[in-house]
Amino acid sequence: MKTKTLIIYFAMLAVVIITCTAFSFSDKDETKSRNQIDPKYTWDLTHIYKNENLWEKDFAWVEKEILQYKTFDGIIGESPKNLLNYLQFDDEMGKKLGLLSLYAKLSRDLNIQDQKNKERWGRIKNLQNRVTAAKYFVRPEILEIPEKKLNSYLIKEDQLQIYSHLINDIVKTKEHTLNKEQEHLFSLSSTITNISSNIYFDMQVDRKDPTIIDDKGNEIILNGNTWEASKVSFDRSFRERAYKGFFTPFMAQKNTYASLLNGRLQAKIFEARMHNYNSAMEASLSPNNIPFSVYDNLIQSVNENTDPLHRWMSLKKEALGLDTLYSYDSYVTIFPSNDKEYTFEEAKQIIIESLRPLGEEYIRDLNMAFNSRWVDVYHTEGKAVGAYSSGTTYGVHPYVLINWTGTVTDLIELTHEMGHCMHAYYTGITQPFVYANYSSFAAEIASTTNEALLMYYLIENTKTPDEKVIQIEKYLNNVRDIFYWTSMASEFENMIYEKVESGKELSSDDFCKIINDLSMKYYGKDLKITEEETYIWGPLRHLYIVDFYLYQYAVGFAASEQIATKIIDNPAAANDYLNFLKTGSSKYPIDAIKIAGVDMNSKEPVMSVSKKMNVMLDEFEALINNKSNE
């Protein structure tokens, strides 16, 4: 597309639509106390425990019952009844621990500076470690039961049938399970191998966020929320200040963060090798029966199909009239009216309407979630930044944390987290405790299917070509962020693990160079990243807390695009999708996703994302050309 065409179009668009003012942070940066927020926009933790005394009562019960694990040592394999008694006892312990952990985590995240909340969280983490250590003998002992005898147990004891998938899963890990004494020693090492992750979390709590001047001349605190919002400001100098300023604390402590990341990598490699895995990736993927081909297909297919992303970056650079497009320019809208803000109530209605293709049952339960204080909406003093869904906790509904500022990013993020929320809810009410959870692989499909339906709704419900190009821009940005960026981050993670596994310790400079090289490959010649942004591995908490998670966002996005298309083309497909959401861990994730009609063993879902992005880019340019020719 020629620059002249773009200039003519944007000039005409500015006449047709009302130009909104630049984003202002003056009132959005005001941090309120919780008693200033309407309770309907806050969590009601009494759904978990009516008061802290009841939490303490359950804590004391679990602490006392830990000793009961010893009574099963050496007798689990003696009879089907012993095996059943152990599994049922462990279920009861798991239910209590789940509720205790959920309450402690949510309380902490409402005020991460509160020492009592932090202490409670530390206590429950310690208790969980003690429970894990107490049952070190279980897996080795089950694996000592001859397979023929174990199968006979499942036949003789009807109540063991419910555990058949779990038992088969344990048998599958035989070559990766140590003997009882070795597993006991290994279980004691968790407090050591988690040190890097714990220090990383504490550093985020203690880190003092810098202050900068926003696009209205106001001094603001540059935290995760204001940084995200700054990306869409029309004031380029402000975007640059905010973007660079966000990474500055990580640059200042680059050696500390590099040491923590190396520590995390070494810990996961140690754990993998202790259990006879060839790599940390194998140790991470194997428990959920995820073939290497899924990860490899993603990286290979994306590397072969970066042209649509290069094309989008080139188009953005041209449209914004910039000689150099930096990352902090790539988030701002091309259109002067595309900075619409949403109240939380408006966002709720948009989400509900966009998800109606999922059927009456889903919409009824989604409304219940919104109206029953499952969502903590606004940022308050000490509240954890970002957004998440708590996942499945047996016996209570899931909770969602968000920090609402009213941007389109918030709208997408809330849609995403409600996907997790409903997945957790349906799993919890459908499956028995033993399967009332799901893999992170399946989780990201539930969240991104919601996003895919939201994007479809926003594009299809535009009234004019001008509105349509605005919504297509949002879709293209979504593909860039969820599909391409997380694929790049996944490739980064795989590369650094492989280097450390080969005996190399990586410095901060090494991490930065890998990020820089990958960015050039993924985004092409038209986007330049600043030195500060090469430190993105510092705030990327997944690397320090949960290994090989990021690829699941990209794979989930690819699967969800196919699922959403199936549902839109054939409303009956929504029933298959809901059945997938209710599967929990009763099936391996690759098999569970097939219920929704998607085969992640093939490259096709990943390849189709790039194809669709090219189609949307074609439509985007056609709309602009048609407008400029009027």
Any idea what the shape is? globular
How many E strands? 7
Give the amount of beta strand, in percent: under 5%
What does the average pLDDT come to?
91
What Rg do the Cα atoms give?
Answer: 25 Å
**Major sheet summary line:** 3 strands, mixed
Q: Can you count the helices?
A: 27
Helix content estimate: 55-70%
- The first-to-last residue Cα distance is 16 Å
Question: Which regions contain 5 or more consecutive residues with pLDDT less than 50?
Answer: 1-29
Class inferred from helices and paired strands: mainly alpha
Strand order of the biggest β-sheet: 4-6-5
Provide a descriptive summary of the structure in words.
It is a single chain. It contains 27 helices and seven strands. α17 crosses α20 (440-460) and α21 (465-501) runs antiparallel to α24. A three-stranded mixed sheet has the order 4-6-5, with helices on one face. The protein has a two-stranded antiparallel ribbon with strand order 1-2. Residues 1-29 have low confidence and may be disordered. The chain is mainly alpha-helical. The radius of gyration is 25 Å and the shape is globular. β1 (211-213) and β2 form a beta hairpin.
